[in-house]
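Appendix B, record 7
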Amino acid sequence: MSNTVPHAALSPARRVELLGTRGCTVWLTGLPASGKTTIALALEVSLLHECVAAITLDGDTLRHGLSAGLAFDAAGRAEAVRRAGEAALLIAESGSIAIVSLVSPYRADRDLVRARHRLSQVPFLEVFIDVPLEIAKERDPKGHYKKALAGEIPSFTGVSDPYEAPIQPELHLTTNTMSVADSVTLLHRAVGRATAS
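Structure tokens (predicted):
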């Protein structure tokens, strides 16, 4: 006779009951150089200071591991978003806060991640990190826009590939008019609401 607990017995509601906390995914999307990673890491630090388990899944980091070898065409981007979404869902199901910082330029790909979270009854917050393209080009901390404009990087979002902005994100942050601290405060409140429900 087996003493193992069937996975079905560990529903999201049961996990919340056992842990006393609910996880969620905070999905930051926006143009390259919009400020996604800066805000994601600041939010992670803010949550950890309050003893809330959180971890950031950054697009660049994921490309070196989980999504290594994927192309930057539409199919490769879709698979990168899918993988990040599945990783975030596992983290959120564990009762932690998964913070994803990923350009994820196509609306349909983000919607599939949202649907997976909904199916698993895990809160999903889509956050549009909005900045005018010209300001993103001026920031260009990694020099990617310069290379893309020179034709050295094909299929670069904002130059040769489109970015489809969220239609109804849970939060819309304009990083050219808001400070990182103000953005984190709004995100922190949104996480609190999502995990309290």
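Remarks on this record: The mean pLDDT is 90. Residues 74-93 form the longest helix (20 residues).
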